[in-house]
Design a protein that fits this description.
The chain is α+β, with helices and mostly antiparallel strands and 362 residues long. It is built from eight helices and 18 strands. Helix 1 packs across helix 7 and helix 4 packs antiparallel against helix 5.
Length: 362
């Protein structure tokens, strides 16, 4: 039986090669492209003449991504995600800064938009799976369960950003590039004259374009700078800050408090609008607490030795995770880790397999 697979196409190289590989291997494929409302005006205007409430439709010929239709010989559909993207991603992003946290919008987008709303739309259109260009591996195991594993290219692997996917989402996900390197992907593209529409790598925050995020927060969230005190870890007054949302834990630049040793942001005291700073040694923590945990594939009955990433570019640290409730846990590090940041995700690995992902709150 020929499998019908939808491919999330962005215009970049990775999703283009993912679509090519699936078609070559015999899948019946079609492309879907979600519109967030934060693209160029050209992209958003494709909805102008559509019926109110239209969810998806064939991408018009004047859209830049339409070039992929002929290149791959497939249909490409546009998915209207504007309202949901605002509700689930942008409002979350703004709300995190209001709480003094550092958000991770890519992680939320993968579980709620790409392999949430888009997967649901793809299945309504007849696809059994949704493929993306992520460098990660989804592996089926007995009892209809699924593992999420690291991609083979350690410089590109993206299992961290997929750690909130549940079992139902993993059951219908396809990551064709998981066992490939970026170099191999580029070689396949060159050998088969696969030219991406966009030559830029994905941005960390795709909806904040050509501006500092503090400006975006002011324009879209009404988050105006409110000056407050800068104090050290002992409470000594050091100066004034111009808005807590301009800072994140571990930040060194922009503190503007001269000292014989550099200051780092240690904590954001939102209750008192104070920026707490200290030396590098003050950044280190022996443990962190996480909540809203996604266990993959199931919650363990006791503590587990793991290696934990507390942000995407963090080298996994030897640690142990202790379940403390239905969706909470404490992670204790073998060696103290710097800049443990509320709002970021902690992702725990056992070998190359993700066993848990949760949001740091303390």
């Amino acid at each position: 039986m020929i499998q019908t697979t939808a491919v999330a196409v962005s215009g970049g190289l990775d999703s283009l090669v993912a679509a090519y590989l699936l078609k070559k291997s015999g899948h019946q494929i079609f492309g879907i492209h979600f519109v967030s409302g934060y693209e160029t005006p050209h992209s958003e205007n494709i909805f102008k003449d559509k019926e109110p409430g239209s969810k998806f439709f064939i991408l018009p010929d004047n859209h830049p991504l339409s070039a992929l239709k002929n290149l791959l010989g497939i249909e490409i559909w546009a998915i209207d995600c504007r309202r949901l993207f605002n509700q689930k991603i942008v409002e979350y992003f703004i709300g995190s800064y209001l709480k003094g946290e550092t958000p991770n919008p890519c992680m939320v987008c993968n579980s709620t938009i790409k392999l949430g709303f888009m997967l649901e739309a793809a299945r309504q259109m007849g696809a059994s799976h949704l493929a993306t260009g992520h460098y990660a591996i989804c592996e089926e195991i007995p009892q209809n369960s699924y593992f999420l594993k690291k991609g083979w290219d350690q410089s590109k692997e993206q299992s961290y950003f997929l750690a909130m996917l549940n079992q139902s989402q993993l059951a219908h996900a396809n990551f064709p590039l998981g066992r490939m390197t970026k170099e191999e992907v580029s070689q396949i593209a060159a050998a088969n004259k696969l030219v991406p529409v966009s030559r830029h790598e994905s941005q960390d925050i795709c909806f904040v374009k050509n501006q500092h995020y503090s400006k975006f927060l002011a324009e879209h969230g009404g988050l105006k700078p409110v000056a407050g005190e800068i104090v050290d870890v002992h409470g000594k007054y050091l100066g004034k800050h111009q808005g807590l949302h301009r800072y994140t834990i571990g930040q060194r630049r922009g503190i503007n408090s001269p000292s014989t040793e550099p200051y780092y942001v240690i904590r954001l005291d939102t209750d008192n609008n104070r920026l707490i700073v200290g030396s590098k040694k003050n950044l280190y923590r022996h443990e962190c607490k996480i909540y809203q945990i996604n266990w993959i594939p199931y919650k363990p009955k006791k503590s587990v030795r793991v290696r934990t990433k507390i942000r995407y570019r963090h080298d996994p640290a030897d640690s142990e995770i202790f379940p403390t409730g239905e969706d909470t846990a404490t992670i204790r590090f073998s060696h103290p880790q710097p800049a443990v940041t509320p709002g970021q995700a902690a992702v725990c690995y056992h070998g190359d397999r993700v066993i848990a992902g949760g949001w740091i709150y303390e």
